[in-house]
Amino acid sequence: MKKPILVAAFLFCCLQRVWGGVDLAPQESLVAAKQHADLTNDQPVPFQLDVDFVAQFNVPDRGHLTLKWEAKDRWWRKVTVDEFEQIEVKNGEWHYTVRNASFTPLAIGNLISLLGFGDDSKDFIAKKEKQRNENGVAMSCIQVERKGYAESSRNVCVSKASNDILVDEWKEPPDEQRREQYSDYFDFGVHRYPRKLERLENGSQVVAAEVVSLISAPFDDSLLTPPKGAIARRECDGLKHATAIKTPEVPYPRSASSSGLMGDTTVAMTVLTDGSVTDIHLLGRATRSMDDATLQALKQWKFKPAMCGSEPVVTDITVVVSFRLSN
Question: Do 212 and 144 share a structural domain?
Answer without folding.
Answer: yes
